[in-house]
UniProtKB/TrEMBL annotation:
Protein name: Fructose-1,6-bisphosphatase class 1
Cofactor(s) needed: Mg(2+)
Entry keyword set: Carbohydrate metabolism, Cytoplasm, Hydrolase, Magnesium, Metal-binding
GO cellular component, one term: cytosol
Domain Fructose-1-6-bisphosphatase class I N-terminal, chain residue ranges per copy: 8-197
Catalytic activity: beta-D-fructose 1,6-bisphosphate + H2O = beta-D-fructose 6-phosphate + phosphate
Description of how the protein assembles with itself and partners: Homotetramer.
Cofactor binding comment, as recorded: Binds 2 magnesium ions per subunit.
Residues the entry annotates as binding Mg(2+) 2: 116, 119, 283
Pathway this chain belongs to: Carbohydrate biosynthesis; Calvin cycle
Gene (UniProt): fbp
Length: 342
């Protein structure tokens, strides 16, 4: 692998493509389109506060949340770059109720893209890092144009997944199945340059990330697990440190580099999030693919996220993701304490 600082993301995409002799460059171009959108969104995020882009649009999205102006900007930027690229047949975005089918006059391509254009956007006004998450599947429907089925595929069938984090620097982290690689945007040359080749997540961490304000709503298994992490045990590194930003991309990125576990479990019934908060297609599945390729694991508490069958675009799932041994240990608590009543 060449040295840091001179290896552009485009060269890296092309190198990865060489391991697929059948590839014709369309896939590399699609990744380049996403990187371009990331640079444009990064520019706008960095100006927030100076220009009139902070605050709400006044609309409510399909998730029932208020749409921030920057959410809207990120969503429109991605759509307008991808829908006329000729490389995409279907687009699913957290901000749009319906999937976007690429129709004439635009050419329909061979890939379906799911995305969360600006994750963590409730943090924008206070200058906390936010991010764009994306996931790419191959078109599987037979017709000339895409169908929703092209988006509703398991995480295991992803061809690529990644995120762009708009933090103290802007980074793009992606995998096409062959390692997880991180690139830092050098704003002086406008290029993502290789900074974190072949990221591996430690098998075990000593950090947990969860919104503990939801404690009352957790299952017995989750309550016991978090209590266990706070108990003293020098051998296994407990008590763990707590770090929760409330921006999935940021919490995930930290744990990917240093190890740890992120949890967004479901609420017990009668509370507002019986299926968790995070969306399977736009948030959980891409993060699950990335962490899997880096040696970690993602679970809904019982099953690998990569094996969950999506039934609808905006489906939610509990998400527990991070260091392999930590997530497996959480599953053991769930198996022990959350046995379903017969
Ligand atoms: P969003 O896609 O509307 O921004 O919501 C997702 C965000 C994640 O980034 C984060 O992990 C989670 O919501 C935080 O939720 P909470 O504020 O309930 O802890
Ligand atoms: Mg989100």
């Amino acid at each position: 692998m060449p040295g840091k600082g001179t290896w552009t993301i485009e060269r890296h995409f092309m190198l990865q493509e060489k391991s697929h002799p059948e590839a014709k460059g369309e896939f590399t171009q699609l990744l380049m389109d996403i990187a371009l959108a990331g640079k444009i969104i990064s520019r706008e995020v960095n100006k927030a506060g100076l220009v009139e882009i902070l605050g709400l649009t006044g609309e409510i999205n399909i998730q029932g949340e208020q749409v921030q102006k920057l959410d809207d900007f990120a969503n429109k930027t991605l759509i307008s770059i991808l829908d006329r690229s000729g490389r995409v047949c279907m687009l699913g975005t957290e901000e749009n109720t319906e999937a976007i089918k690429i129709l004439p006059p635009y050419t329909s391509g061979h890939y379906a893209v799911s995305m969360d254009p600006l994750d963590g956007s409730s943090n924008i006004d206070v200058n906390v890092s936010v991010g764009t998450i994306f996931s790419i599947h191959r078109k599987v429907s037979k017709g000339p144009r895409g169908e929703e089925a092209d988006l509703l595929q398991t995480g295991r069938k992803q061809l690529a997944a990644g995120y762009i984090i708009y933090g103290s620097s802007t980074m793009m982290v992606y995998t096409t199945g062959n390692g997880v690689h991180g690139f830092t945007l050098d704003p002086s040359v406008g290029e993502f340059l290789l900074s974190h080749p072949d990221i591996r997540i430690p098998k075990r961490g000593n950090t947990y990330s969860v919104n503990e304000g939801n404690y009352l709503f957790w299952s017995e298994g989750t309550k016991r697990y978090i209590k266990y992490l706070k108990e003293m045990d020098n051998q296994s590194g407990r008590p763990y440190t707590s770090r929760y930003i409330g921006s999935l991309v940021s919490d995930f990125h930290r744990n990917l580099l240093h190890g740890g576990i992120f949890l967004y479990p479901s609420d017990q019934k009668d509370h507002k999030r019986p299926h968790g908060k995070l969306r399977l297609l736009y948030e959980a599945a891409p993060m699950a693919y990335i962490v899997d390729r880096a040696g970690g694991y993602a679970s809904d508490g019982k099953k690998n996220i990569l094996d969950l069958e999506p039934k609808e675009l905006h489906q939610r799932t509990p998400l527990i993701v991070g260091s392999y041994e930590d997530v497996k240990e959480y599953e053991e608590f769930i198996a022990e304490y959350d046995k379903e009543k017969k």
